[in-house]
Design goal:
L-fuculose-1-phosphate Aldolase; seven-stranded parallel β-sheet; 46% helix; alpha/beta; Rossmann fold; seven-stranded mixed β-sheet; elongated; 3 domains; 701 residues
Length: 701
Amino acid sequence: MKNRWSDRDAQALLSYYGEDYPRELILRSYSGRLLGAEPSLVLHGGGNTSLKDHFPDVFGEPAPALFIKASGFDLAAIEPQDHVAVDLQRLQSLQTLAAISDQAMLNELCASRFNQSAPAPSIETLAHALLPGRFIDHTHADAILALTNQQGGADHVRRALGEEVVVLPYVRPGFPLARQVAEALPKVPQARAMVWEHHGIVVWGDTARQSYDRMIELVSRAEQYLAEAAPARTYSRTDESAEISDRRLARLAPVLRGLLAASTGDDGRPYRRCVLQPLVDAWTAGILAGGSRSQHVSPPLTSDHLIRTRLLPAWVEAPDFDDEQRLRSQLEEVLAQYAQDYQDYFERHLSRLPTTATATDLRPRVVLIPGLGALCAGSDAAAARIARDVTAHTLEVKDRIAAMGGVYRVPEEEHLFDMEYLPQQQLKLGDGEQPLTGDVVMVTGAAGAIGSGICSRLLQAGAHVVATDLDDAGLQSLVGELSERYGDRIIGLHQDVSEAESVAASFAEVCRVWGGMDGLVINAGLAHVATLEEMDMEHFRRLERVNTDGTVLLLRAAAGLFRRQATGGDIVLVSTKNVFAPGAGFGAYSATKAAAHQLARVASQEMAANDVRVNMVAPDAVFAQGERRSGLWAEVGPERMRARGLDQSGLEEYYRNRNLLKAKITASQVAEGVLFFLERRTPSTGATLPIDGGLPEATPR
């Protein structure tokens, strides 16, 4: 493993934070980031780092303090303020206790904070308080877990790392682990590190650099030991097999995603949906092809990962990819059996929890599918990605153990159950779901004014957004802008709504990326100014292909996808006031949009039986969304300005003054109308919501 310490980078971080934080705490953050940047050391909030220093107490006196990473925070982006300062002496006094409950331990950790508004400290805070060394680093290094998670693991560690590394058998993190640490240290006074079986490696040092160097040195030695014992295996596939895998994924993912949706008991929003992240590379497919259910259906590398992956993955035996109905039946059987098995597991250990406890969920987070790979589920893309990454590392380590001739080994089931339902672990999951969390919505014509406004509002409401457009440059700009705030909850896809192949390809790609789709906002459209007498029929047909044919193609694709997912869906057509109040010289636009509007009304009737709602919003005169100008008004505006002798601002004022409310109609307001329907705030389908400030002649009738 490469040592990435750089004195120049460390100094740059010291300069960046200046006098705002103590020097040692800034260096603590720097070395923590180096550890967090290595996926083979820690994943998504895993690992722990701490620093023993002082914190001014209420009297202004320096009190001994432990600065430890807040629970669940990501080391890769750790900042000085993300280390919680706790009373070191208070925590060290707890070692005199014979036992303490999990809830009491959590209370003590929170009470020991010098700042009660700070996040919860890590579950391993007490162990860090009792360890020697000013700086302490703990990682879930894959190489270490490959040694410990097999029969004879302790012997492997000693041979690889030497006698100065203490090996502790697995005990549950928290108070039991801290007691074991305290009892083991006096027996090995020369110790400079510890390996906690099934839980990783802990090192310490007097400086951030010393502790970091020691971590890299020991993990590198473990990697070298593994390389000599059994070189890592490689797997490959042909372009043809990759194409087959892509087809299988696009067909299977929406079926599985629909079956994984949880019933809510709410007639309006009957399902809480999930997002999938696929792990379908050649390496994963090769591992699954070379193993069996008994080999791969086992817990993850560390008990810390259980809240992300559940105790076990689901396994689909001999999936029938060529028969979708048979495949659906297979998936249903697998998930039903998984739910029963998980309920049995929960009831076996229910006595270990408060009497009011219930199983958190009966659905798997990981589904292993030989012939394809793994599909990993989460409440959003971030949670699913964590499950995917944990699964990838688990499969890799298990494959390395098998190559060594070893047998994968994990703690006893009751220990895993305790960790899965530990209060400190459950806190990491949070409960900040928004109305559209887990929903995937496609917005066509996303790069324009109205489309970009809709995308932004849906992301704000928690949705995952598929932005599509023909304008690749505009689309790339939009996705880049919104991803800075919303991360990977937005993707951009090139799409020509007038071409069936393009629409089909974009829908298939959504299934491959997130598993499916729940909402469709049909916004892409073209405008043209010409009287009927002067109409160029090719211009008319161009609008017809986009505005009308495009609507048919999108409705058709959505109907099929929603039927296969079987969890309902929502479609919102961005219509126009011109459907009800057409304007002279605007016949091509008015007619083709009226056709699209009528198609949406028909769709509302045809799709209702599948709980798919189809509604329309009818805005008037949206000129821009920030710097993004409306393509329609770029086409229409010049003629309208000439006809009325107005400039751009004058034209916008003209349209404001013609509605009853004298309101400026914005893309954000149109987005609110779209959101109204997507959130299903009323039991409506086939409805039209005017967003025009009040135009009596355009009132739907």
